[in-house]
Amino acid sequence: MKTILRGAAAIAMILAVPAWAQTASYPAKPVRAVLPYSVGSGPDAVTRLVGEKLSKAWGQPLIVENKPGANGWLAIGDVKRAAADGYSLVVVDNTHMTLHPHLYKKLPFDPVADFEPVAPVYTTYFFIVVPANSPWNNVGDLIAAAKAKGGNLTYGTWGMGSVAHIGASMFQTQTGTQMTHVPFKELPQLYTAVATGEVDWAFGTAATVAQLYQAKKVKLLALAAPKRLAQYGHIPTVAEAGGPAGFELKTWVALFAPKGTPKAVIDRINGGVAKAVVEPDVRKQFDTFGFEAWPANAADLAQAMKTDTQRFDTVVKQAAISLD
Q: Quick check: 285 and 148 in contact, CB under 8 A?
């Protein structure tokens, strides 16, 4: 019996060594961060900034690879096919991981079965944006106008099934209104259309509408968040501005790894990201974009995925939206 126990213990030690060795030396070579966003976008700028911190701490470079297009599926597919060793990560937002599964029946990946949550990076909330010469001064005015126009009031988004489209569906349900959706192909086109009055309103983040707002071409009626944004403290929340209580619309950006990536490796990456996003220069950059650092563990990210998945499931079914 003693011989059997010693043998079992030896086997266990042998099996444990590779994982320990891999974790202790991680990273032993450059790490890839693949993004479905273009160079110069908010997520790209943040990933590069955080990547500099990680590279310095690890002694190995974090290489950013931009692969926009195909709803983000090019970047996601790249990392899905990569080895589960922590050397290939994908940086995506909640749209990809919690909304797309409800919009596409033939999604080429499974957020839960194919990926491990690694590290959240930041969250950002959306403003309700209207032309600078709009007669509306608060959300209550917008709601009253929508009810008076009987569906003729328009809102713009950057595409069918976008988080803005889903958010507008939520807004209409909670306010008992009906409005006309006008989708655009590009963000600049959308917000130019808002500024010129081609569409009546749109959702936009501080990162996407700051220039137009500072140029006084648009105005911000409210922030769809539980509290005001520090950099825009004069802008009320939707609830404060006469809208539905508790109405929120946000997106978050996070790192994911192929399914089966060792937990110890995930913990090491997570720790590095959580430390980087709260460093002063990083937070200063976040403030520029209106982002809020989200230093949390992988379990928190997994829970956020679950919560958003359930919420979007309900909204998409109510709105009867399908993109297949």
A: no
| In the chain, % of residues over pLDDT 90 | 78
Asked if residue 254 lies in contact with residue 96, where contact means CB atoms within 8 angstroms, the answer is no
Quote the pTM value: 0.85
- Cα 104 to Cα 206: distance, rounded to the nearest angstrom: 29
Q: Using the 8-state DSSP alphabet, how is residue 278 labeled?
A: T
- Using alpha carbons only, what angle is made at residue 145 by residues 144 and 150, rounded to the nearest 5 degrees? 105
Per-residue pLDDT at 13: 47
Nearest to 75 by CA among 83, 85, 65, 84: 65
Q: How far is it, in rounded angstroms, from Cα 235 to Cα 254? A: 27
Q: Which helix (H) or strand (E) holds 94?
A: helix 94-94
- Radius of gyration of the chain from Cα atoms? 22
Per-residue pLDDT tens over the stretch 72-123 = 999 999 999 999 999 999 999 999 999 999 999 889 999 999 999 999 999 9
Q: How far is CA 256 from CA 103, 110, 122, 244, 269, in A?
A: 21, 12, 14, 34, 10
Give the C-alpha separation, 15 to 261, whole Å.
16
